[in-house]
Amino acid sequence: MKLYVLNGPNLNMLGVREPDIYGRQTYGDLLSYIQQICQREQIEVECFQSNHEGELVDIIQSAYGKADGIVINPAAYTHTSVALLDALKAVALPAVEVHLSDVSERESFRQFSYPAMACLAQIKGLGFQGYEKAILLLKERLN
Ligand code: DQA
Q1: Which CATH number is 70's domain given?
Q2: Which residues line ligand 1 (CB under 6 A)?
């Protein structure tokens, strides 16, 4: 089983960016965490981060035929991007949306998600553990 884990804009700034909301751990720490979970679960994983919507679309498209499922934190594009929704629908791979923070408890503009319409689930407010939950959910779904 192979998963793609995608992180959207500004998630490369984890650790520096609004630590009261996103914590002090860095994007590198997140990558190590995901690698460790996937190693434990015997899942092959490729992680990507981009600040560019089109590049995220390209990565989702490239998952077709290569990955069995997608974990995606679309970050700010969650709330704006029909293109990411369409890309997820196009490849039709099982996908789970993750947010580090609890978007439902934040500004009203964060409470709507386009990509969620093409995802099995949206996991929010669990920090790094949300990625573990998403990986396990996909594993269960794919087995
Ligand atoms: C986020 C929540 C989004 O609203 C925000 O734009 C982000 C991060 C999260 O992980 O909590 O960049 O996706």
Answers
A1: 3.40.50.9100
A2: 10, 73, 75-76, 78, 99-101, 103, 110
CA 69 to ligand 1 centroid distance, Å: 21
pLDDT of 43-62, one tens digit each?
Answer: 999 999 999 999 999 999 99
Ligand 1 atom having least distance to the Cα of 77? 6
Q: What beta strand segments (E) does 37-143 contain? A: 44-49, 69-73, 95-99, 121-124
* Ligand 1 centroid, distance to 21 Cα (angstroms): 9
pLDDT value, residue 69: 98
Structural domain of residue 112, as residue ranges? 2-142
What is this structure's pTM? 0.98
Structural domain total, the chain: 1
Confidence grade of residue 5 (pLDDT, cut at 50, 70, 90): very high
